Amino acid sequence: MxxxxxxxxxSVLDEGRTAMVEYEAKQVLxxxxxxxxxxxxxxxxxxxxxxxxxxxxxxAMKLMSPQILHKSDARVVMLNIKTxxxxxxxxxxxxxxxxxxxxxxxxxxxxxxxxxxxxREVIIGVTEDPQFGHAIMFGLGGIFVEVLKDVTFRxxxxxxxDARKMITEIKGYPILAGARGEEPADIxxxxxxxxxxxxxxxxxxxxxxxxxxxxxxxxxxxxxxxVVDARIILKKVPENRKPEVSAEYRERCA
Amino acid sequence: xxxxxxEELKPFFEPKAVAIIxxxxxxxxxxxxxxxNFKRNKENGVFKGNLYPVNPKLDEIEDYRxxxxxxxxxxxxxxxxxxxxxxxxxxxxxDIAEKGIKAVIIITGGFGELGEEGKKLEREIYEIAKAHGIxxxxxxxxxxxxxxxxxxxxxxxxxxxxxxxxxxxxxxxxSGAFAAAxxxxxAMEGIGIGKMVSYGNKIDVDDADLMxxxxxxxxxxxxxxxxxxxxxGRKFIESARKITRVKPVVALKxxxxxxxxxAASSHTGSLAGQDVIYDAxxxxxxxxxxxxxxxxxxxxxxxxxxxxxxxxxxxIGIITDGGGAGVMASDAVAKFGLKMAEPSEETVKFxxxxxxxxxxxxxxxxxxxxxxxxxxxxxxxxxxxxxxxxAILVIVLFQVPLLEDEKAIEILxxxxxxxxxxxxxxxxxxxxxxxxxxxxxEKGVPVYPTPERGVRALAGLVRYAQYLKKE
Lengths: 254, 471
What we know:
Structural class of chain A: alpha+beta
Structural class of chain B: alpha/beta
Shape of chain A: globular
Number of domains of chain B: 2
Number of domains of chain A: 2
Number of strands of chain B: 20
Distance between the termini of chain B: 27 Å
Shape of chain B: elongated
Helix content of chain A: 25-40%
CATH superfamily of the largest domain in chain A: ATP-grasp fold, B domain
Number of helices of chain A: 9
Oligomer: heterodimer
Number of strands of chain A: 10
CATH class of the largest domain in chain A: Alpha Beta
Number of helices of chain B: 16
CATH architecture of the largest domain in chain A: 2-Layer Sandwich
CATH class of the largest domain in chain B: Alpha Beta
Largest sheet of chain A: 6 strands, antiparallel
Largest interface: A-B, 15 and 19 residues
Strand content of chain A: 15-25%
């Protein structure tokens, strides 16, 4: 678990970066058993076509670049691609958009992902407090977190009771419990995720600065939850590491 | 074997001999007020230790021999109180180290809170203390107040600030000004403070150390903290978890807003953490967060007398002699997330037999305006025996004409003693009521001036009981 995640962390630090791209962040999460979609990083168009075939259309494409962390601003997320033809066209488009947004963008590849069934959006985050160390945050996604700031924190590590209390104490809890005749969301799956994030950060506390699992789709009771997008910010690169630009990726994706 | 922390901090609270470094005969000077405090307490027979003023320029202060240096001090000195200008403190600390004194209160300000130069001095003191195993409270603080042993380093003179009586509440404050104001206020309110510590810049002894100490202090039932910032968060969490399993901790954390947070960091040179993080810490460690100082002492008062009989559940029974006050209390029960008890059939039957027809039986039970003390007794008899009631709020409007006030007070105190259910009283009114309220308080019935505050105090008891159950 820890070894696998550390490998990803080390490789990012070796490149002189502290911001992980979505794909890398999800590799770390996956190492700790967090539910991530069955996605693949395509470095060439041929790979992209092959992965889309394996995953099954429709698919989503997300361009991975350390310089582009706000993917929708740069318009490097393409959804609901139904055919290989469409994929070819979007492959071109997505690279053009990336270059327009950041001409110097280093492109690690394009994530080919299945289109996910929407669920109730929740957010799980991690921040570091100078006095108390890492804290985990939970809330409902979208306007609940942005406008109403309906979130709650606990210091890591947390217990299962902490996790359950976090979920029930936010004001928006009825939305998860099943307001207006909806089926209740899979609370146990969210509890599990909170505990795994806590464990991950507790193990890697020397490396992790901040983390956002946003959004997470929580499905109906018994149907689990999945991390749709994720970001991990690492602590400052230690002095002894020299950045080595991954020229290889840049050439192949040009 | 006694805990290490108890041995280390004990001299602060029960010294065998205290040296006042910077003692002077100049009225109003810090070194004079502190000396006078100890002298007065020694004359009253409260402070039983020896008192040694230290000042190189004096031979005698009010019949006390003055020592010219720390080196000259008798060997039984186990607490040093420093009230000399900051630049002289490091050398004094070295002398103290050589003398073998292990507990020091540094009242002097002008350290870390004033910038780099002060921080350097602070660092020097810290290093001397660490190297010699000296525990330090301060600098930049008012220190310690213990009414039972006569320790009083609060440099605000007796004629300007009243001292509270002793009690089961410990009060810890980062801010000295707040501590002094609260002591003065507690004295007026009749709230008993067993130990007060104000640690100022807390270069050594901090919240966590004090929590560890109070775990073992049988005189203390509840610990209250006024916190601006915590330095070692993990140590704080560990100690907090330890103490809340044994006794309740109530904390008032300032800097709730961004604006307040800025003010806090420029106050004692300490960093105020983010408010949401403190909320998380308090929730995870079972510390009860107070909204304001009134809330803090309302809770402290309730815990001081009722810590040993916490409610078994959250169902509140209300007895009142005024309908309006009963409604206010019921509203507060809902507001603070408690439940209104449903009185059992036995309770209803019992009260129906005994009460006049115009009294209202139920919850609230209204003994109405023509009540005498006996109706309160009957209602308490029924509610304390009722399995559906976990805690009782008794509202007494002492203004009603037929109520034998002192008898009513005796009845409440009697049921508080006999019943295993906590009883909290509300006495609304003015000067005359205030006198009765103090009597109730003294007899172990915590009393509050409004139904809302009474219920809020009960909610604190309920929450703490729930926390203990889960642990």
